[in-house]
Design goal:
Chain A contains 5 helices and no strands. Chain B is elongated, with a radius of gyration of 23 Å. Classes of the chains: A mainly alpha (81), B mainly alpha (202).
């Protein structure tokens, strides 16, 4: 099956955003809790968390997990944290 | 560690045999609330959420030493639970997806077509870019890289690709990252910018 137009666009996006010092999935997920709190607080990202953001942009799996994580955090009440 | 957060005594209570049962019950309630919100609408039932919560509590106790205080304890604990839930759901959803169709040498094939709605010059530019892409795919990527990228583009998660190839997610990510790097370098050597790649491929 040839690539669909959508798949080609996705591949080109991935190639365009490739950098030499990307985090791998484990490195990204290790920082996900810290990244989520910073993200939810609307605070600026440190260099390390910028790398998490870049990884999430390039890795559909981790981005999907991050969205589930944000939903789960919303499900917890603030006063019990 | 860039900043530390109070853990509200979670770690001490979870380590203290006399306080642990109550702490586990409180943590269980927190995790259940979060996991239900995140996963009950995603084709999982409450039994799934209960099972994952139980597994998460075991894993959290095993990994208490790994909590570094870079986030609140409850956030960290929830990240462990979400990790488990996501992995299990992916395993269930993708176990029936066949990857056989992309092992026959046809991975990452591009068909060229003139788009009737495009200006001829735009169509020519796009076809030129796609032609370069196919050339780079054929000349610079290994069979494993082509196969892994095709699987990803077909929606198979990295974790599942790793499982089916007796590898691990980091190794698969590196395989794909190396492939992306080769393609990007090839495009740069041919005079294309990152903006060209995104703009012309739409």
């Amino acid at each position: 099956m040839p690539l669909t137009r959508q798949q080609i666009a996705m591949l080109m996006q991935l190639v365009a955003e490739t950098t030499s010092d990307e985090l791998d999935c484990s490195g990204c997920l290790d920082h996900l809790a810290e990244f989520a709190e910073t993200h939810l607080a609307g605070q600026p990202l440190s260099d390390a968390l910028e790398e998490v953001r870049t990884h999430l942009k390039n890795c559909h799996c981790c981005e999907h997990e991050f969205q589930s994580f944000l939903e789960a955090l919303k499900g917890m009440s603030d006063d019990s944290q | 560690m860039s900043a530390t957060h109070e853990d509200n005594g979670w770690v001490d209570r979870l380590r203290d045999p006399t306080l642990q049962p109550q702490a586990l019950e409180q943590l269980r309630d927190l995790l259940l609330r979060g996991l239900r919100r995140a996963f009950l609408s995603k084709a999982s039932d409450d039994a799934f959420v209960e099972d994952v919560t139980q597994d998460a509590l075991v894993r959290i106790l095993d990994r208490l030493d790994q909590f570094e205080g870079r986030s609140r304890f409850s956030t960290w604990a929830m990240s462990v639970a979400v990790r488990l839930a996501t992995s299990e759901l992916r395993r269930k959803r993708t176990r029936d997806i066949s990857l056989d169709g992309i092992t026959d040498g046809n991975a990452l094939r591009i068909e060229f077509a003139d788009e009737s709605t495009e200006q001829p010059s735009a169509s020519a530019e796009r076809n030129s870019l796609l032609s370069k892409l196919q050339e780079l795919i054929d000349e610079r990527l290994t069979d494993r890289q082509r196969w892994a990228i095709q699987a990803l583009l077909n929606g198979v998660p990295i974790e599942e690709i790793a499982r089916r190839t007796d590898s691990n997610p980091n190794a698969v990510y590196k395989l794909v990252h190396d492939a992306r790097t080769r393609l990007k370098q090839g495009f740069e050597q041919a005079g294309y910018t990152a903006d060209d790649l995104v703009g012309l491929s739409q």
